Amino acid sequence: MAKERTKISTSALAKALGKSSRQMFAELEALGWISREQEQWRLTAKGEFEQGSYCDSERYGRYIVWPEGVKGHRALVNPEDRFTGAKGLGLKTGLSTLRINQLLAELGWIKPWLKGWQLTEAGQALGGVQKEDTHTAIPYVLWPKTLPENIIFKRTLRAFTVPLAEVEHYRGCRAMDGHLLRSEAEVKIDNWLYLAGITHACDKKLPLEASVRADFYLPQVRLFIEFWGSENDSSYLAEKMHKKALYEANNLAVIELQEGDLNQLDEVLPRQLRRFGLEC
């Protein structure tokens, strides 16, 4: 009689591959081998194809086991085949690599670490994999290619990219950090500053006797930011010229943004901010 092949639990499989149990379950779910149903892990047709099966224990109840040979499965030892980095997520969503990482950090799934990014426990639970550049030793994270389907990621991405007029629950123009602003353009600038980790105030009064307010103020470098829209209203144009004259006459540091800058803030703002000693 042929000896039954040795089977190992998912936790044992995780240990053999040097991963946590949470990460292993998340990866198997991303592969489509298992699914979560009524607080229990169940084998899918793909999981059964990979020879997964169930084991019943008086102590642990029913759990999934795998043939030992699965430890060398290409999909498990070569995560790049089903994972992608921030650059790949950016290409899929239309955002830069930096902006994707900042969004993921805002969600608490990664955190800045040694010029790179470190996976958090919450990110690991989503199937994130910690990696390190072999040349620079800078850490980075790979994500399941299914991450853009995650409801929390989609909601955060939508809040950052979708025009406010399309978001039904908006009452006014509210940015990701809660600031209530006057226009979609200002929200876009505010979101950029927030994700870059730059402390800023909105609708800040200039340090002058005249009752004039700036769109944004960065206290760290005593810098104002003004967005000049393309409105042709005469009163708006008069106010714009008046404010520009006040900045110049009082030697106040200011960055001026135009409508055409909004779609390239990742290039425009870092370059401008460096002129005032602020790296981001």
Number of discrete domains: 3
Order of helices and strands: EHHEEHEEHEHHEEHEEHEEHEEEHEH
Strands side by side in the biggest sheet: 13-14-15-16
User: Mean pLDDT, nearest integer?
Assistant: 87
CATH architecture of the largest domain: 3-Layer(aba) Sandwich
Low-confidence stretches: 164-171
Assembly state here?
single chain
How many helices? The count is: 11
The CATH superfamily of the largest domain is VSR Endonuclease
Radius of gyration: 25 Å
Q: Helix amount, in percent? A: 25-40%
Counting DSSP E segments of at least 2 residues, the number of strands comes to 16
Strand content: 15-25%
- Would you state the CATH class of the largest domain? Alpha Beta
Largest sheet: 4 strands, mixed
Give the overall silhouette.
elongated
CATH fold group of the largest domain = Endonuclease, Chain A
Q: Strand pairing plus helix content: what structural class?
A: alpha+beta
The termini sit apart by: 68 Å
Protein name: Glycerol kinase
Describe the structure.
The protein is of the alpha+beta class. The protein has three domains: 7-77, no CATH class; 79-153, no CATH class; 174-274, Endonuclease, Chain A. 35% of the residues lie in helices and 25% in strands. It is built from eleven helices and 16 strands. It has helices at 10-16, 21-31, 45-49, 74-77, 86-93, 97-106, 121-125, 151-161, 184-195, 234-249, 265-274, and strands at residues 7-9, 34-37, 40-43, 53-57, 61-67, 83-84, 110-113, 116-119, 129-132, 139-144, 173-174, 180-181, 201-205, 213-218, 223-228, 254-258. The strands form six sheets. It has a four-stranded mixed β-sheet with strand order 13-14-15-16, with helices on one face. The chain has a three-stranded antiparallel β-sheet with strand order 1-5-4. The protein has a three-stranded antiparallel β-sheet with strand order 6-10-9. A hairpin with a 3-residue loop joins strand 4 (53-57) and strand 5 (61-67). Helix 5 (86-93) crosses helix 6 (97-106). The longest helix is centred in the C-terminal third of the chain and has 16 residues, at 234-249. It is elongated and about 85 Å long. It starts with 6 loop residues before the first strand and ends in a 6-residue tail after the last helix.
